[in-house]
Amino acid sequence: MFICLFVYICTCLLFIMTSAGFNVTSVTSLTLEGLAQLSEHRSMWFTLFLSLYVFVLSADFLVVYLICSQRTLRRPMFAFVAAVLLNSVAAGTSVYPKLLSDLMSGSEAVQVSQSGCLSQAFVLMSLGGSSFMLLSAMAFDRYLSICRPLRYAALVTPSAVAALLLLCWLLPAALVGGAVLLASRLPLCRSRLSRIYCDVYSFVSLSCGGGATLLSEVYGLISAALTVFFPAAFVLFSYGRVLSVCLRSSRSFCSKALHTCLPHLLVFVNYSLSTSFELLQRRLQARGEPAASILTSVLMVVVPTVLNPVVYGLKMNEIFRHVKRLLGCQRAA
Fold first, then answer.
1. Which residues constitute the signal peptide according to the record (predicted)?
2. Residue 307: what pLDDT?
3. Whole-angstrom Cα distance, residue 227 to residue 175?
4. DSSP assignment of 63-82, as one string?
5. Containing H/E element for 177?
6. Residue 192 and residue 296 in contact, taking contact as beta carbons nearer than 8 Å
7. What CA–CA distance (Å, rounded) separates 281 from 291?
8. What is the pTM of this model?
9. Quick one: what percent of the chain has pLDDT higher than 90?
């Protein structure tokens, strides 16, 4: 309710601020100049991104298939794992196919409409927020399993898992949707971005400033706090509690508990580093360093989507055993 009210108030204020109009040139399309930094070795980049995208699709769907088909994996923890991997596939699909098409076109700059840019930004930003919220839900699941084992079955029911999954996807979509709505009303004074894909922050940076831009930036900070920083803090708190319990327990219990948490921690570090690279990219872009800015953009796309299936496929023994059996590396018992 608070979120809907906040979006409504921001939208009304923005309409009031923009109703007087601005004496600026109307910008109807944007230019993404990131491909210029990749043009020297275009064939190499195309082959690399195509290989990575095929790997992401194959590995993610393999793990999701195993989770859905094996009865021993039909547990809340693996439901969250499948959700994270599907989230990763969706985020990769919003970037890889368009990037491959742009590399094949041979041009060093890509024209994209405002609506197309904002649509891609909405998908990427909402899925990025969903990733952190899903990781916080997984941390909560591990906290209850290890620290409150007697209440785990009563609290983590199928309906509770479904409700958590819906919250993890719908809340970021609502918040990012409000940010995109605010950004779509901004008058733009520039049209060139040193990026290979669109994001809301970069789109807002093209605006002419003023109260509308300030409102959009403040809303973006609040959205980031609710979908990224608060969930990340909750993850750290949950695993801190798990570590505290482990230190007071037997060595075998501690080893087993930490082993189940390790893959989730690795994925959390993966997303945290990618987000840090994104923040670094913004500073580099503000300082006018396009080459480094493009590098961080590439890492932002590649690192999370590629490492997630590797971590879950190799580090979770329950999944890895089924992977080896499915690929014929181990005989069925």
1. 1-21
2. 86
3. 8
4. HHHHHHH-GGG-SHHHHHHH
5. helix 158-184
6. no
7. 10
8. 0.84
9. 23
Predicted local confidence at residue 14, as pLDDT: 44
Please determine, for residue 26, whether its predicted confidence score (pLDDT) is greater than 70: no
> What totals of helices (H) and strands (E) does the chain contain, helices first?
13, 3
* 196: nearest Cα among 21, 64, 58, 45: 45
Alpha carbon 229 to its chain's center: 13
State in words which class domain 40-326 has.
Answer: mainly alpha
| Alpha carbon distance 17, 227 (integer Å) | 27
Q: Please choose, from the candidates 221, 253, 212, 258, the residue with its C-alpha nearest in 3D space to the C-alpha of residue 239.
A: 258
Average pLDDT across the chain, whole number: 81
78-89 pLDDT, tens digit each = 899 999 999 989
The residue written with tokens 């209850």 in the block is: 144
Which two tokens mark 102? 């742009």
Q: Can you state the percent helix, strand and coil of the chain, rounding each to 5?
A: 80, 5, 15
Q: Which of 127, 136, 173, 169 is nearest to 7 (CA)?
A: 173
- Phi and psi torsions of 113, nearest 5°: -70, 160
The Cα–Cα gap between 91 and 176 comes to: 14
pLDDT bucket at 318, cuts 50 / 70 / 90 = confident
Dihedral angle at the C-alpha atoms of 181, 184, 186, 189, nearest 10 degrees?
Answer: 160
Residue 122 contacts residue 176 (beta carbons within 8 Å): yes
pLDDT value, residue 302: 79
What are the backbone angles phi and psi of residue 185, rounded to the nearest 5°? -95, -5
